[in-house]
Amino acid sequence: MTKKERFAFVISYFEQHAPNAETELIYDNPYQLLVAVILSAQCTDKRVNLTTPAIFERYPDVEALSHATFEELFPLIRSISYPNNKTKHLIGMAQMVIDDFNGEIPATVPELIKLPGVGRKTANVITSVVHQQPNMAVDTHVFRVSARIGLTTNAKTPLQTELQLLKYIPKEKVYIAHHWLILHGRYICIARNPKCGECGLRPACKYYQQITKAQ
Questions:
Q1: Residues that are catalytic
Q2: Is 205 annotated as a binding residue?
Q3: Does 43 count as an annotated binding residue?
């Protein structure tokens, strides 16, 4: 199976079995999504979703968050991983959005990565989820799943993975392909003991072919 054929198989499978895949973070607007994604770094979406309601109740918009103090915000996110840094990032992000972007959450990757706590992955998530831009966010799930299946070859960094995926995924499908790969990695192609017996991608998966040969 060629690389092109493998991508075609994977895309066709997910279009049939997960046509409405979307983020599991709960949000109502770009501000809430940005807060949730910043909090989600090295933390589960489930934990983030338990934490954000109290934040959004107290700070319903970016203006309100820009006036928060560390002492006020920290108790609301102390259960999240790296709460000290994330508290500082959220306040700094809100202040920069107010001061530099007229209170509007930026809509491009170059602008978003200027914000505290926002790296390329987070910026790609925001622009693909909110605006359906053809940006591929690569987290540990996307990195692992892409390599296992054989969608990427010798990709050593998230950026290398991102560029290889963008080469073969049609632009109009990139925003949803991000969710396909994340959710597949979260529930089927898990890090330890992947559930190959439940996986419909076996005919196209290099990892499955390797373990089958080894048996």
A1: 121, 139
A2: yes
A3: no
